[in-house]
Specification:
- By secondary structure, this protein is α/β, with parallel strands linked by helices.
- Helix 11 crosses helix 15.
- Strand 4, helix 7 and strand 5 form a beta-alpha-beta unit.
- It has a seven-stranded mixed β-sheet with strand order 1-7-6-5-4-2-3, sandwiched between helices. It has a five-stranded mixed β-sheet with strand order 8-9-12-11-10, with helices on one face.
- The chain has two domains: 250 residues, Type I PLP-dependent aspartate aminotransferase-like (Major domain) (Aspartate Aminotransferase, domain 2), CATH 3.40.640.10; 139 residues, Aspartate Aminotransferase, domain 1, CATH 3.90.1150.10.
- It contains 15 helices and twelve strands.
- The structure holds pyridoxal-5'-phosphate.
- Pyridoxal-5'-phosphate binds next to helix 5.
- The site of pyridoxal-5'-phosphate has 16 residues, from helix 5.
Length: 400
C-alpha cells in the first residue's frame, strides 16, 4: 500500500467550476428541478446517484467538502454539518437507541459530555464515563448493551491521548463501533488507519482555521453516511443540522492551507512547551517526553505534522490564571477566548469555560485544576519573541 498522506490526498483532488473556474461554483439552491417525475421518485428512494433533491439532504458544495474530508481521513465518504455538535449528536443517535449503552472517555469536550450525561438518557441511552488511558477499565465498562466506544484522539482540555489501535481491538472484540473525535489532531493523526470506524471533527477549529464559522463533519462508510441521510430514518436528515453551501465553500478554501498551518501550530506549541517546562511550569504537551502518553502518541502520528498546537500550563490558581490571561491579551499575545485553531493564540481556563458542564467534583477527579490554562498556540512568525513576551507577563505576576 502506498504511504497514506492525508494532505496529499486532499491535494490530489481536482475540481472544475461549471464555467471552468479553478474553484467549484457555489450551489446557491435549496431545491433542485427534475426533468421527469420518475427521476424525482427514484431520488427520494435513494436510487439516483448524482441527482440532488433538497439541500438538507445534500448539495453540490457540501459534497465537494465531504469529498475533501473523506480523502483526509481515509474514509469512503463523509457528511458535513452545521457544527461539530451537529455531527456528534446525529452520529450517536444513529448508532444507539433506547436501551443502548455507550462507553466514553470522561475527558471530552464539555458539550459532548453534557449531551451524553444529560440529554441522551432522555432517549434511553446511557453512558459509562471512563479513564480512556486505562484499557482494562475501558473493557470492564462494556456491557451486553454497549454499542459505541467514544473518545477524542487528544482530549479536551487535558490533552490525554487515546491509544486508538488498542481501543480498536477492544471495540472489534465486543462488536462495538469506535467513534473518534479528531478535532485536536487533524492530519497529525489518521484514526481510521489505527482502526477507528467513524471520525468526527468540529470544522470550527483547525480545519477552517479562521474562527469565522462553526461546522462539523462525520467521516465514515457509504452505508453509515447513507443511513444518516435516509429520508425516513436518518438522524442528520431528520434533525436537520445542515451546513450552508456558502459556508462549505469557504471552509473548503481554508482547508487547502491546513497542512501548512498544522506544521506551524505544532512547531510553535512544541517550542513554547519545551521552554516553559524548562522554566519549571507544569506543562502538558503530547510532544514532551514527560507526557504520560508521549511514546504512544509518537507512534500514532503522521510525523511531519507534529504533535499539534494545543498545550496547557498550570499557573497555580484561578486568580493567577485569570490575571495572566488578561495581561497577555492586553499585550496582544492572543485572545482570552474559547475555541482553537486560530492564527492568533487563544487561551481560556477550561474549568470555568469549555468544561464548566462537568461537575466540580468530577473535574477534580480527572485532574482538571483551577489554575489550568488551555492554549491553542497561534501561527506566530517569531515564536522566540512570543516566548519572551509571555515570560515577561509571567514574571510581572510572579508566576515565574
Ligand atoms: N469536539 C471538540 C473536541 C471540541 O473542542 C468542540 C468544541 O469546542 C466540539 C467537538 C464541538 O464543536 P462545535 O462547537 O463546532 O459544535
Amino acid at each position: 500500500m502506498k504511504n497514506f498522506n492525508p494532505a496529499d490526498n486532499i491535494q490530489d483532488l481536482q475540481y472544475f467550476g461549471e464555467f471552468g473556474g479553478v474553484n467549484p461554483s457555489i450551489s446557491d439552491s435549496s431545491t433542485y428541478t427534475f426533468l421527469s417525475a420518475k427521476t424525482m421518485f427514484d431520488t427520494f428512494e435513494g436510487n439516483m446517484e448524482g441527482c440532488y433533491l433538497y439541500s438538507r439532504h445534500s448539495s453540490p458544495s457540501n459534497l465537494y467538502l465531504d469529498k475533501a474530508l473523506a480523502a483526509m481521513e481515509g474514509t469512503e465518504t463523509a457528511n458535513v454539518s452545521a457544527s461539530g455538535m451537529g455531527a456528534i449528536t446525529p452520529t450517536l443517535l444513529q448508532l444507539c437507541g433506547t436501551g443502548d449503552h455507550i462507553v466514553s472517555s470522561r475527558t471530552i469536550y464539555g458539550g459532548t459530555y453534557a449531551f451524553l450525561k444529560n440529554f441522551a438518557p432522555r432517549m434511553g441511552i446511557k453512558t459509562a464515563f471512563v479513564d480512556i488511558t486505562k484499557l482494562d477499565v475501558v473493557e470492564a465498562a462494556i456491557t451486553p448493551s454497549t454499542k459505541v466506544l467514544y473518545c477524542e484522539t487528544v482530549s479536551n482540555p487535558l490533552l490525554e491521548v487515546a491509544d486508538i489501535a488498542e481501543l480498536s481491538k477492544i471495540a472489534k472484540k465486543h462488536n462495538l463501533t469506535l467513534v473518534v473525535d479528531n478535532t485536536f489532531s487533524p492530519l497529525s493523526v489518521t484514526p481510521t488507519k489505527l482502526g477507528a470506524d467513524i471520525v468526527i471533527h468540529s470544522l470550527t477549529k483547525y480545519i477552517n482555521g479562521s474562527s469565522d464559522t462553526v461546522g462539523g463533519v462525520t467521516c465514515a462508510s457509504h452505508d453509515f453516511i447513507n443511513s444518516l441521510k435516509d429520508v425516513n430514518s436518518g438522524a442528520s436528515m431528520l434533525l436537520g443540522p445542515t451546513m450552508d453551501s456558502m459556508r462549505s465553500a469557504s471552509v473548503m478554501k481554508n482547508m487547502r492551507t491546513l497542512h501548512l498551518r498544522v506544521k506551524q501550530h505544532s512547531h510553535n506549541a512544541s517550542y513554547l512547551a519545551e521552554r516553559f517546562e524548562k522554566d519549571g511550569l507544569k506543562t502538558v504537551y503530547p510532544g514532551l517526553a514527560s507526557h504520560p502518553s508521549h511514546k504512544i502518541y509518537a507512534s500514532m502520528i503522521n510525523p511531519e505534522y507534529g504533535f499539534g498546537g494545543m498545550m496547557t500550563l498550570d499557573v497555580g490558581s484561578l486568580a493567577k490564571a485569570n490575571a495572566l490571561m488578561e495581561l497577555m491579551q492586553s499585550k496582544n499575545l492572543g485572545y482570552l477566548a474559547v475555541s482553537l485553531g486560530f492564527y492568533k493564540t487563544l487561551f481560556s481556563a477550561p474549568g470555568t469555560s469549555t468544561s464548566s458542564e462537568i461537575p466540580m467534583e468530577e473535574q477534580v477527579e480527572m485532574g482538571l485544576t483551577d489554575g489550568l490554562i488551555r492554549f491553542s498556540i497561534g501561527l506566530d512568525n517569531d515564536i522566540e519573541r512570543t516566548y519572551q513576551m509571555m515570560r515577561a507577563c509571567m514574571q510581572e505576576l510572579a508566576i515565574l
